[in-house]
Amino acid sequence: MELRQLRYFIKAKELLNFTEAADSLNISQSTLSQQIKQLEDELDIPLFNRIGKRIALTEAGQLFYNYALQSVNRANNGKLMLQELNQLQAGSLNIGVTYGLRYLLTPALMRFLRKFPKVKVQVVFGTSEELRHRLLSLELDILLTFEEVVHDAHLTYELLFESPLCLVSSAKDPVAQHDQVLLKDVVALPLVLPSNGFSTREFINNTLLQNKLSPNIALEINDIPTLLDLVKAGNWYTILAKTTVKGSGLSAVPIKGKNMVRKAMIITMTDVYEKKAVGQFRKFMLDEVKRR
Amino acid sequence: MELRQLRYFIKAKELLNFTEAADSLNISQSTLSQQIKQLEDELDIPLFNRIGKRIALTEAGQLFYNYALQSVNRANNGKLMLQELNQLQAGSLNIGVTYGLRYLLTPALMRFLRKFPKVKVQVVFGTSEELRHRLLSLELDILLTFEEVVHDAHLTYELLFESPLCLVSSAKDPVAQHDQVLLKDVVALPLVLPSNGFSTREFINNTLLQNKLSPNIALEINDIPTLLDLVKAGNWYTILAKTTVKGSGLSAVPIKGKNMVRKAMIITMTDVYEKKAVGQFRKFMLDEVKRR
DNA sequence: TTTCTTAAATCGGTTTTATCGATTGATGTT
DNA sequence: AACATCAATCGATAAAACCGATTTAAGAAA
């Protein structure tokens, strides 16, 4: 039993005339006759009564019609549904994002949703490590974060923008007056750093290791807004990309040195089918960067 | 898109391994790979992500799965339904019957329904003419009546039994004492006959025409039980097959002469598919005749 | 009746395609 | 580095869908 035969049967039932049905199906009457017969053989019961040159549905044909129709319709509807998905009139988009990129995400996301209101978007905040893991397990479609220390062969990286690594302090702190600071001065200050797993923390760990410096870590915390609140209180300092601090009212003084810069990236999986929604959203993000 | 491809996709989705799925489907891995690819091409979207040697469903595959499953299931269920029909665990049986054969019908019908309780039976009483018309238009599956004067080429006739044509009278009537009567004596009596359209009436018309006799018709009526009541009252006589009178308490004296006999028949349409239910019911009827 | 028309079934041959085995390429494992 | 595993690809083959022509049968028309 094949959909082709069901389609033939449906048309023959509707026209009750093999010759016309065959015309309508763009096949020969011979073919239609054979395919119907084959279907009847498989079902082990005639679907049509051949009365002279007329055909009429048997009870079996009458009963089977609804099943045939529904089977064909389910398949057709599945195809239509996928067409909608291709035109972004359906489907979902799962975005992973680190806190530092929220200011870029929100306007791009708003424009995307206005254009494709049928797409269900889920945004997941988390550490780079956690989000990268979820991207690799296909839980996420796209990841917005800072560049990793090591690249993963299964991932594709696309640069969004660069942001200098900064010493972050209360706006009233004397350090805020400086144009730039040295890394060795930074490690002397009491620091509140993001926990391991955050991309900037991994970057800091790596940089300090290379410079043989060890930081004065007062506190580690896995929530960036809370971390910023603590710094705002004035007792502690932290190290973050300039973008991350934007809009918080805190001071961010660039740290002097080569490579003292974070690269914001769009990360997706290599060689997996890229949803239309991902492609579109990527464009919105790149466009958002250009606007600034 | 064909059911075959949907079946392949479903299995591949369930096992998430083309090699195993192909084994389970008794096809080569090569074939499965090609058919899935063909399906994806037609749907214009990948159903699987090929990550290295692993495969995983795409969003499209996930969404399409339910449609594929339902399409295949509808077709399978249709086939199963027809199997039940073939085993008389479903379906309908429409029986046309003339009043004269009710005594044979009821016991056969009761046995049939006990054996095939799932079959929906409809019994239609009527004149032979009316019932034959409904049989020809496929409204009836089988017809139980007396032999027609002329046979229809589209109908198949099978003898059930023969019953002598009788002069019917009240049991107290002097005529009831006779062993037989002559046709010319019958036409002298005041008769109540079934209306035209009843097979016995057609037979009587024909017989009298051939014998150049004209009857003394007091009343024509199209309801046999009422006709019998009138005869029972004693003022009138009628002509019917002996079987028709059985159990009514009336006297039935055979009419002398060649061919003064009615043939009870099973009539079906020639060359139309005979339902399993019809075949079975026919057997029950013939069996019922043998029992007597 | 006979003829004519129409519709479905059948037949033989052709084209299409589903399928296979073998091979390749790529990946993860020992 | 060698090996095992899995999906993709290739070329060949077998299966099937399909067509045109013909046959068969039934209504319709002459």
TrEMBL record, chains A, B:
The keyword Transmembrane does not apply. The keyword Transcription applies. It comes from the Bacteria. Keywords: DNA-binding, Transcription, Transcription regulation. Residues 1-58 form the HTH lysR-type domain. Pfam families: HTH_1, LysR_substrate. GO terms for molecular function: DNA binding; DNA-binding transcription factor activity. GO terms for cellular component: protein-DNA complex. Belongs to the LysR transcriptional regulatory family. This is LysR family transcriptional regulator. It comes from Mucilaginibacter pallidiroseus.
